[in-house]
Amino acid sequence: NGGNGCATHGELKSSFTIPGVAVPSIHFQSVSFSYTSAVDLLTGITFDLGPGWSGLVGANGSGKSTILSLIEGRLDPQSGSVSADGIVGVCPQAVEERDPRIVGFAAEWDGNAYNIRRRLDLEPEDVTRWATLSPGERKRWQIGAVLAGRPDILLLDEPTNHLDSDGHDILASELRRFRGVGIVVSHDRTFLDHITTKTLRLSNGTLSVWRSPYSQAKHDWEAELANETAEYERTKRERK
Question: Which of 54, 160, 224, 228 yields a CA-CA distance of 20 to 30 A from 120?
Fold first, then answer.
């Protein structure tokens, strides 16, 4: 694991399987976690993910980065179990440091690395002037390096914070090519709608899975809340 760079680790294990193929997946079973003994940050979280992109959303401090750390194996749950079946690749928010994997990615000339650099509009010689690259350029180098490692599971934390509109489109196009299990933490609604098919919503220590991109998922949970509120008010009136 490499500081502020990208990281991959883990060994491929079988989960959802078809003959001759191991399919990557993520499983949370009744997971609870807290940083102090006073209050649980996460409580009884259960979900299963197969290939495809999911957006992980929630208020600041709700536990999004903790979920990523549990998947990566940097944290262990207080109760329940977490399994990530496949090689895990991670890109955090920070872009200041040039991880050695990025240098290796720039020097690779096999078809996979070359094609990723071409699609992300990256020139190998630019790595030698890392300090002068824009944060958006560094982010594309980070993500390109982790993709070149062929992860089965890809975790991205706010990947579009430093990108202009062109960089946004380039990155979205490349990530749509990924065929493993992807989770992206982002406040960028447009980006989430462009690449995700599921939304994981963290709220009050629990997680709900919505089988749609962010905008549709938000509409659905707001409608559900409105219905619950209306039903509560109707019941209260009937009791009176």
Answer: 54
With vertex at residue 153, the alpha carbon angle to CA 147 and CA 159, rounded to the nearest 5 degrees, is 60
Summarize pLDDT for 73-131 with one digit per residue, the tens.
999 999 999 999 999 999 988 999 898 999 999 999 989 999 999 999 999 999 999 99
* Of 168, 216, 170, the residue nearest 55 (C-alpha): 216
Q: pLDDT digit string (tens) for 17-33?
A: 445 557 999 999 999 99
- Cα–Cα distances in Å, from 88 out to 9, 138, 177, 226? 5, 21, 17, 38
Q: Rounded CA gap, 97 and 2, in Å?
A: 10
Q: How many CB atoms lie within 10 A of CB 133?
A: 16
Distances (CA, A) of 159 to 36, 70, 128, 145: 29, 19, 22, 14
How many other CB atoms sit within 10 Å of the CB of residue 172? 18
Q: Is the pLDDT of residue 196 over 60?
A: yes
Q: Are 71 and 86 in contact (CB under 8 A)?
A: no
| Sequence-distant (≥ 6) Cβ neighbours of residue 106 within 8 angstroms | 117, 122, 124, 126, 127, 141
| Continuous segment of H or E residues that includes residue 30 | strand 25-33
- pTM attached to this predicted model: 0.84
Over 80: is that where the pLDDT of 233 sits? no
* 3-class secondary-structure state, position 183: strand
E strands in 152-196 = 153-157, 181-185
